[in-house]
Amino acid sequence: MGDIKITNSGIKRILNKYTYLKSIAEYIWNGFDAKANCVEINLHKNILKEIDEISIIDNGYGIDRTKLSEKFTPFFDSEKVINPDEKRKVSLMHGKNGVGRLTFFCFASNAKWETIYKDKSTNRNIKYEIYIDDQNLTTYIDKNIQETFENTGTKVTFTNLHNSINENEIIDFIKKEFCWFLELNKERNFNIKVNDKKVDYSDIILDEEKEELIYEKTKINFKIKFVQWRYPLTNEYSRFYFIDSNDIEKYKETTTLNKKADQFYHSIYIKSSLFNNFSFDSDDSQTCLFNSKSSDEYKFLMNSIEKLLKEKRKSFLRKSSEKLIDNLEKANAYPKFDKDNFIDQYKKSQLDDLISALYQAQPKIFTSLNDIQKKTFVHFLNLIMDSDEKEQLFEILNEIIELEEEDKTELLKLLKYSKLTNIIKTIKLIKDRFKAIEELKCLVFNKDLNANEIPHLQAFIESHYWIFGEQYHLVTAAEPNFEEALRRYCYILTGETEKKKIEHENKYKQMDIFAVRQDIQNDIINNIVVELKHPNIKLGTKQFYQVQEYMDVILKQHQFNAPNMFWEFYLVGNDYDNYISGLLKNAQPHGERSLAYKVDNYKIYIKKWSEIIAEFEIKHKFLNEKLELERKKLIDKNYISADEIIDNISNNTAVQPKEIVMPSY
User: Gene3D superfamilies, alphabetically (predicted)?
Assistant: First the structure.
């Protein structure tokens, strides 16, 4: 029996920052500190399926009974609270002061150690048990001492649990606490098991890359592995780990991109024979017997890794800036831009580019702001981009934030030329939209071209669905049936990829054009379905009923019918009969041109191609006059067939993205 040299209440006060998860992690670290390469956690469940006992087993060197008083008798220079989140300089030894073995009191009443160690005086393995309970943490009992032929190791069992223990919670915590360490010792087959199943941390790896470098002068080889984590590591910075040729960690230090407030959590593992005999504490190769940080090989290595890290971070920040912009829009921090006005949309893209560049240069600009400050700052940036003061903005930013030279150059270039480049892009887009309309006229009005419904009109509108509205995503075109349309629709809105089932007699029908647009600020989802008809077909009862069948399928699927979803169906042809004229006349009280039917969030429009083209002309009349486009010269050749028009579609900048591509399932 031995006494722990501090009071029971004092121990609990000093260890009060421990949770049951941090405590379990401490016992796992104890196993690795004892040179184990495998630690197993067994969770026993009672008849009610609740965890009522926890055991942690390692294959380390056990607890030497001759040093028991040292292991279970922590000495403190003061009664300073021990913080389990304190960052450590080295990976092992992780435990200190013996405190880890006493933290069980935060989730269990009793702890029992069964340990086997090798007695150095007899060269025999000794097995014995240690007992401590949470009411008397100052005293331990050791008994049942005997020789054994069993392998060394320790099993600690916790009973009389007074916390609700969750298996998934334990596994998730283990991943974040030990992923970097298990990766560090991957070649040595280190692992952690929970109920006989290895903990797999691959799901928290966001990116990884292996690279091999050779310093040509001395042929020293470096094997590098970069790992980016999805989440911050529980108790570790972003670090370099230097590993010798025997896969033993020799040293670690924080990377230069640590704590940048950008969520770029990473670890760099470097293996080389250079580190077999290397002085990490010396920078002077002249006075050091071994290689040091001043060696050419080391300088070459670190310069190469810094480049790799910066490239990885730049790519990550570019993607993160897209998420930032999306979140700013959702938080209504963005100015209002008209989705149906493509000039407004280019203004938005100009603001997007600036915010993206600023975030990539210094993420703290945005991460340190609250929602009101973000909105104020974004509106300020928008005003600046619309003015002639952009270069002054650069001077201000350069004074208040720390920018690297490369970031300064890119940001200044963006502020200097963004307005000019966007004007050029806008003029080119306007020109190409007018060109597209001229080509559409040829397809629907020039009978000599022999334009058909599917290969020509369908293909053309698939590329130019902006004609029916801005900012739409093409869900399906021509071939996919309603079940596939629903699957793609759910994928765009929610990210779901599962197959969808529809019970309806018309579920295998195919819509010519189905597109969706999300208005995040107003929480509205606009949907359009377009049915195109051959120029020679006069629209009538049959064609209108076809559109109504589409509407009926959609009406009966709950996924298509949220209160914030609005549907517009367009039936388009060169002419229509008296039946259609009657529908349009009956719908006139609604006050919408071309409206034939309306119920709740559903509308059916019937339009002639001449109407669609006229609407474009009216909407773009001002721009046409200001740009003085010579419309006849927009088509630089005389088309002799509809196929020629379709073959040249890709040369037009007004072409929009193709229908959504689903991930394989």
Answer: Histidine kinase-like ATPase, C-terminal domain
Contacts of 615 (CB under 8 A, 6+ apart): none
494: CATH: 3.40.1350
The alpha carbons of the chain give a radius of gyration, in whole angstroms, of: 35
Q: What is the pLDDT of residues 159-177, one digit of tens each?
A: 999 878 999 999 999 999 9
Domain with 29, as residue range(s), is 2-198
- Residues 180-224 pLDDT 10s: 999 999 999 999 999 999 999 999 999 999 999 999 999 999 999
- CA 21 to chain centroid, in Å, comes to 26
Six token digits for residue 100: 């880890």
Contact between 82 and 15 under an 8 Å Cβ cutoff? The reply is yes
Q: How many residues does the chain have?
A: 665
The mean pLDDT of 356-368, rounded to a whole number, is 80
Whether the link from the prior residue into 565 is cis, omega within 30° of 0, is: no
One-character DSSP codes across 324-370: HHHHHHHTT-SPP--TT-HHHHHHHHHHHHHHHHHHHH-THHHHT--
33 contacts: CB under 8 Å, gap ≥ 6:
60, 92, 93, 94, 95
Residue 75 neighbours by CB distance under 10 Å: 10
Residues 258, 367, single domain; the answer is no
pLDDT of residue 519: 75
Distance CA(170)–CA(28), nearest Å, equals 12
